[in-house]
């Protein structure tokens, strides 16, 4: 198949409508989660939409998050000094994947492999960026994730 016919991950999962459903339902579930609820106790009502826009941009969709919220440096700043643990990170990833299953997002091996790859990579960066002494590089590029990404070591 010629590469120009390969949809982005964003297109494959159903675009912003699917991501809005995913993030809305996910954060509903987070509120009642014993481990994650306290982390997001002060989350504002717009948080799910911001996360949907961020994920959309990362997965090949429009650059809405960068244009309206400041791109990757802004996302990094949201994690500074949060002191996230690996246990919280794993629960976040697992709950998001469970929510994707609940909402019947694509579950083909290729898509799920790419999604899990990004969630693992991104959530591990979030933990690193949440520790004491971490800072947000103002020129940090927005991650771009596709069907078979392999990233080098994080040098931030």
TrEMBL record:
Keyword Oxidoreductase carried by entry: no
Keyword Signal: no
GO MF entry, a single one: heme binding
Domain of life: Bacteria
Sorted UniProt keywords: Heme, Iron, Metal-binding, Transport
Region of interest (Disordered), residue spans: 133-156
Binding, heme: 50, 74
Family of the protein in this entry: Belongs to the truncated hemoglobin family. Group II subfamily.
PANTHER family for this protein: TWO-ON-TWO HEMOGLOBIN-3
Name of the protein: Globin
Native source organism of the sequence: Caenimonas sedimenti
């Amino acid at each position: 198949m010629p590469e120009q016919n390969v949809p982005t991950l964003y297109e494959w999962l159903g675009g912003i409508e699917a991501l809005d459903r995913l993030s809305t339902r996910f954060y509903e579930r987070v509120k009642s989660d014993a481990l994650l609820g306290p982390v997001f106790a002060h989350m504002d009502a717009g948080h799910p939409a911001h996360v949907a826009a961020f994920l959309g941009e990362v997965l090949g969709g429009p650059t809405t998050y960068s244009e309206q919220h400041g791109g990757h440096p802004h996302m990094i700043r949201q994690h500074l000094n949060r002191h996230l643990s690996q246990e919280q990170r794993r629960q976040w990833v697992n709950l998001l994947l469970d929510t994707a299953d609940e909402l019947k997002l694509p579950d083909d091996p290729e898509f799920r492999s790419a999604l899990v790859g990004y969630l693992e990579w991104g959530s591990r960066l979030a933990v690193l960026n949440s520790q004491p002494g971490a800072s947000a590089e103002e020129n940090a590029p927005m991650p771009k994730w596709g069907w078979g990404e392999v990233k080098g070591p994080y040098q931030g």
